[in-house]
Amino acid sequence: MRKPLIAANWKMYKTISEADDFVKQFVPLVKDVTDVDKLIAPPFTSLNAVATAAAGSGIIVAAQDVFYEEQGAFTGEISPGMIKDAGGTFVIIGHSERRQYFHETDSIVNKKSKAALRAGLGVVLCIGETLEERNTNRTFDVVKRQIAEGLAEFCEAEFKDTVIAYEPVWAIGTGVTATPEQAEEAHGFIRSIIKEIYGDLADEMRILYGGSVKPENVDEIMASPNVDGALVGGASLDPQVFSKLVKFRRG
Ligand code: PEP
């Protein structure tokens, strides 16, 4: 049985005091929802404030990226140990914005994931095709390559600490959502690919959908059998709105 996970990716939004305010409003709104895991990924600067404000609430605190070295002359980078030190227990890796603007390849995504897992962090590994890739019927090839290379050489324990987020790039921040049928088709395919590599462990892996999820569409997206949660950008910035996603209607 896979426990649903609803995850907030705040991207480059919120100061420390705004992050603190959010958590103080959000915690009471979702305190009775125990059958859904909640995750918040603030910018690095607010990681510790969110971890402090969320202490004891069960909310998972995640970074939005990590570097694969533990320390050294890597100006501007943050290591897995630094994320843990700030109170984070998870990290989002390979978000399409990192791939697009910061040229992250599948091999970098794999190195970052391995380093984070080695340090004891959980990983949300993002994959997904662009509009051009979908329109030229390459969705399955792209997703298959991202999985094979992103998860390359993961041992069983590493695999168990990993969550996949399928985020079609054309649906992120655009207001366009994949239909429940498109999401289920992609998620079913992803699970079948993972099954080829890891066998029945694939049935335990959570696969989140991301791309313009909001209160109006969360119920139908979450009703798909292979969708185990959501990674949410825009609709995660307001505590009232995000709490509605956590309280999606169970089928
Ligand atoms: C995201 O940033 O991962 C995302 C899915 O954004 P949005 O919900 O705004 O489309």
CATH class: Alpha Beta
- Order of strands across the widest beta sheet? 1-2-3-4-5-6-7-8
N- to C-terminal distance: 15 Å
Using only CA atoms, what is the Rg? Answer: 17 Å
> What is the share of helical residues?
40-55%
Count of β-strands = 8
| Succession of helices and strands | EHEHEHEHHEHHHEHEHEH
CATH homologous superfamily heading: Aldolase class I
CATH topology: TIM Barrel
Tally of domains: 1
The set of bound ligands, ions and cofactors reads: phosphoenolpyruvate
Shape-level CATH architecture: Alpha-Beta Barrel
Low-pLDDT stretches are none
| Protein structure class | alpha/beta
Look at the structure and give the mean pLDDT.
96
Query: Strand fraction band?
Result: 5-15%
Short recap of the structure:
The chain has 251 residues and is α/β, with parallel strands linked by helices. It has 11 helices and 8 strands. It has an 8-stranded parallel beta barrel with strand order 1-2-3-4-5-6-7-8, surrounded by 5 helices.
Q: Can you characterise this structure?
A:
- This protein has 251 residues and is α/β, with parallel strands linked by helices.
- The protein is built from eleven helices and eight strands.
- The chain has one domain (5-246): TIM Barrel.
- The longest helix has 19 residues, at 180-198.
- The radius of gyration is 17 Å and the shape is globular.
- The protein has an eight-stranded parallel beta barrel with strand order 1-2-3-4-5-6-7-8, surrounded by five helices.
- The chain is 41% helix and 15% strand.
- Phosphoenolpyruvate is lined by residues 9, 11, 167, 172-173, 210-213, 231-235.
- Phosphoenolpyruvate binds at residues 9, 11, 167, 172-173, 210-213, 231-235.
